[in-house]
Write a structure and sequence with these properties.
alpha+beta; 215 residues; seven-stranded mixed beta sheet; 7 strands
């Protein structure tokens, strides 16, 4: 898939029960695995031993999982559960009726130890034909390939080229938080009937909008 080198191909089916049978997860999440997922395929393993790329400092291996769905929707909690169980970075390709979405999370090593990861924000494409997915194997090592996949999937949201991926992700998180604060404050301004309080709220609103413009 994705015109990746043949040496990276695995094409092994992973029983979905593997991700919930012997784990303490909620009945709701287990039901999502059962009802929303048809089958999970481990399609590719992008690593130093399967490519001519060097291992990265923090990203040594990147897995490509194809998740075939019963309907064109999957609860994000499922991907987060899989990401927590697999001690490597993962590119998810969700498939439904021949169309695909590419998903991946900003995933970084946690402070708790080796093979422990902190799974952050997920980014994804629209539903597309496989050939139209904006994914290209680009980089001199596995870490650069992973970071470029994240940027390719996120598009304009992580378009900053003069900053690290971590900085881009943090900027995007700050942007989303400011947008939420602005939306809440706009409602408060609209509901406020006292002029002096309206003026005060509008001043705060202008400050937040300036901060958003500066990002």
């Amino acid at each position: 898939m994705l015109e990746l080198p043949k040496s990276t191909e695995v094409n092994r089916r992973i029983p979905k029960q593997k991700f919930y049978e012997n784990l303490t997860i909620s009945p709701t999440l287990k039901r999502v695995f059962v009802e929303q997922i048809k089958v999970i395929w481990w399609r590719n393993k992008i690593a130093a031993i399967t490519t001519n790329l060097a291992a990265g400092e923090t990203v040594t291996e990147l897995e490509v999982f194809e998740v075939c769905l019963s309907a064109p929707h999957l609860d994000e909690a499922v991907l987060r559960q899989i990401d927590k169980e697999i001690p490597y970075h993962i590119l998810f390709l969700l498939e439904h009726e021949g169309r695909y979405q590419a998903w991946t999370a900003y995933k970084e090593a946690a402070a708790s130890g080796i093979n422990a990861f902190k799974v952050g924000t997920y980014y994804h494409t629209d539903w597309l034909e496989e050939s139209a997915l904006p994914l290209k194997l680009d980089g001199l090592n596995i870490e650069q390939v992973y970071e470029n996949f994240v940027r390719q999937i996120a598009g304009e949201a992580l378009s900053g080229t003069s900053e690290t991926l971590k900085e881009s992700v943090e900027r995007e998180e700050r942007r989303k938080e400011l947008q939420k604060q602005i939306a809440v404050l706009e409602v408060k301004v609209w509901r406020e009937r006292q002029l002096n309080k309206q003026v005060e709220l509008n001043m705060k609103l202008k400050q937040l909008r300036r901060q958003l413009d500066d990002l």
